[in-house]
Amino acid sequence: MSGKLFLVPTPIGNLEDMTFRAVRILKEADVILAEDTRTSAPMLKHFGIERKAYSHHQHNEHQASSEIVRFLKEGKKVALISDAGTPAISDPGFFLVREVLKHDLAVECLPGPTAFVPALVNSGLPCDTFVFEGFLPVKKGRQTRLKKLTSEQRTMVLYESPHRLLKTLEEFIGYFGEDRQASVSRELTKRFEETVRGRLAEIKSHFENNILKGEFVICIAGAPEPEKKAKYNRNDE
Ligand code: SAM
Prior knowledge:
Elements: E1 4-7, H1 20-28, E2 31-34, H2 37-46, E3 53-55, H3 61-73, E4 77-81, H4 94-102, E5 106-109, H5 116-123, E6 130-135, H6 142-149, E7 155-160, H7 165-176, E8 181-186, E9 194-199, H8 200-208, E10 216-220
Parallel strand pairs: 1-4, 1-5, 2-3, 2-4, 6-7
Antiparallel strand pairs: 7-10, 8-9, 8-10
């Protein structure tokens, strides 16, 4: 019988967000893979998970995958965690999932913490349909991506690092206009959590005058629908 690869979400700041099942799966796993074993060690210890974790990050995921596939074929349970949130969401994981599926082996992602869902819901912007853009490319392809997003009508959700936030908001004003509604959520689930909502210009000025520390998710309202052409002209009425 072959094993299973479990993708296990871990808290993005508040340890109370760990699920019972995440703890059980990590305790039962034969192998735990962690993006950064030093970052995950205190969290694993907190939940009484004694097993040693092995590192699995973007620089070794290609070589490591054949060994992981072998473990799974031997019937082992392998659990993958990232530093925070859901693995494979702007974190290592996708490559491994694809390799494991290529070998017809089982994959299961547990539901759990991730930053973009609370940020989107807190934003107050439409969340019936949305697009998750993760981190924009830093250099090559950035302007092309931004240009493409100007016609996006769904709410857009993006991750950004603190040192690029102001520059990115400035660029967004250039592409989407200073009046476009948006929100920035900072330090979700942590002590200094805040969500700033309003026009892009207002949000930028808020963060120009406040400390730019922590982790950030940006949500931007989609472009307004182009006015529908009148179905009938007046003569048809
Ligand atoms: N896998 C994670 C997830 O499921 O959300 C995302 C990992 S990505 C490397 C890290 C980025 O996620 C941060 O730069 C930030 O944009 C966002 N993020 C993670 N934790 C956050 C938090 N507590 N508050 C706000 N944003 C957060």
